[in-house]
Amino acid sequence: MAQKIIIDNDPGHDDAINLLLALASGELELLGITCVHGNVGLDRTTLNTLKILELAGKNVSVYAGADRPLLRDPINAESVHGKSGLEGPVLPNPTLALKSQRAAEFIVQSVLEYPNEVILVPTGPLTNIALALRLEPKIAPLIPQMVIMGGSTDFGNFSPAAEFNILADPHAASIVFSSGVPIVMFGLNVTHQVLATPARVDKFRQLGSKVAEAVVSLLEFFKLSYEKRYQFAGPALHDPCTVAYLLRPELFKLREMNVEIELGAGPSFGQTVCDVWGVTGKVKNARVAIEADADGFFELLLERVGRY
Ligand code: BDR
Ligand code: CA
Q1: In this predicted structure, which of 22-31, 219-228, 271-280 has the lowest mean pLDDT?
Q2: Which of 7, 10, 128 to mutate to test the pocket of ligand 1 (most atoms within 8 A of CB)?
Q3: For residue 164, which atom of ligand 1 is closest to its CA?
Q4: Domains and CATH numbers, the chain
């Protein structure tokens, strides 16, 4: 039986590739896609999600969620993803429409309908997930797992200490990380191991399909900021690590530890404080990815994109 999941995202180049990976994978049953503010505003993240579904030729329900963080002022990542959030490819206009139900309500309803069966996969700020947990606290023990892209065991990207998804709503992240739901965390420490180098991108180019062409354009635009800021050989595929993990957990090495979110005002605001060595003795609330088999990851992604 396929694994039921809900992806909560803010496309975003890497969110878009994550969706394409999930949509091509019969092992997963995508109950719905919820959208959140993040890389760009909610109006764009919802539109971008619908455009990716159109490109993929798939019909999945899409729900709009929070258009701002719980408490802090909004930030965005237009500097990385461009004004639209998906600069690069020319994408088809959507024929699907958004559902009227709000994201948090849809998450609550799905978890109650399928207790212990729905894995949540958030790849943007955690506002929708925190709202769902607050809306119906009964759902926390009924969620078997959350596979999150966010945080880092060491450095940040939007501040020296904080990764974008967590920094964009640290209060929501704190609610999620203290919810008791088993968490698998993909932070920058591991996603920066998964780089779309020119040789890897060429293999997607050779596929020649419409979807593969879009993936190449996404990667070509996405690489610009990675060359400029990090001098990397290609962009880091943060978000697709989540779905790749669900499909092939053996591609990643995880380590269990306590993770809490720094909420104090100051240079570490939004940091995922990772107790790698267990010095606090606090409960190990997350399994944190520390190593990726990047070649294996790209083999999987190439094979799945090749299905379109
Ligand atoms: C995360 O931030 C966003 O820009 C990406 O989509 C990813 O989810 C990486 O820090
Ligand atoms: Ca994202």
Answers
A1: 219-228
A2: 10
A3: 10
A4: 3-305 (3.90.245.10)
